Amino acid sequence: MDIKDIQNLIKFVSKAEVSEVKYKTKDFEITIKTPLAGSDAVYAQPAVYHTAPQAAAPVHAAAPAAAPAEKAEAASDDSKYVVIKSPMIGTFYRKPSPDKDVFVNVGDEVSVGKVVCVIEAMKLFNQIDSEISGKIVKILVDDATPVEYDQPLFLVDPS
After folding, report:
1. What angle is formed at CA 126 by the lines to CA 91 and CA 52, rounded to 5 degrees?
2. Whole-model pTM?
3. What's one Pfam family here (predicted)?
4. CATH for the stretch 56-64+81-157
């Protein structure tokens, strides 16, 4: 079983809303448990633990109470941007390694196929390429934090 098969299995389990799935062959075994099972972890051989992302909660808690007009204006501003989403569950990294520079910063121009981040899943580092050309407007995830499948990572202004 290769990494693409594992990623597809994880996607299937998350969409099927089941609590646990086991897949076993003579030389490979994987068990995936979802939060429906009372745990926020994904278990595999070797075990890799993922907790629910904490980045979304502080954004709302830290934001001061704004007038409804300001909230509507901010929402309409974000609607013109394209979102780059996580294609898998894993840990988000902005750098290829701790001693290297980040792939992209806010304000950087990206083109189709440019690497914007790395997501580690089961000790494999998967480069995530931009699917669009434009300028990075916002980085929505902190470095070295867990991400979920289809979670927004970047906002890109395609104009």
Report:
1. 20
2. 0.53
3. Biotin_lipoyl
4. 2.40.50.100
Give tens-digit pLDDT for 104-129.
Answer: 999 999 999 999 999 999 889 999 99
Measured between alpha carbons, how far is 80 from 75 in angstroms, rounded to an integer? 9
Q: How does DSSP assign 108-130, residue by residue?
A: -EE-TT-EEEEEEETTEEEEEE-
Length of the chain: 159
Nearest to 41 by CA among 30, 54, 52: 52
DSSP 13-30: HHHHT-SEEEEE-SS-EE
For residue range 63-89, list pLDDT tens digits in order: 444 444 444 445 556 778 999 999 999
d(Cα 21, Cα 5) in Å, to the nearest integer? 14
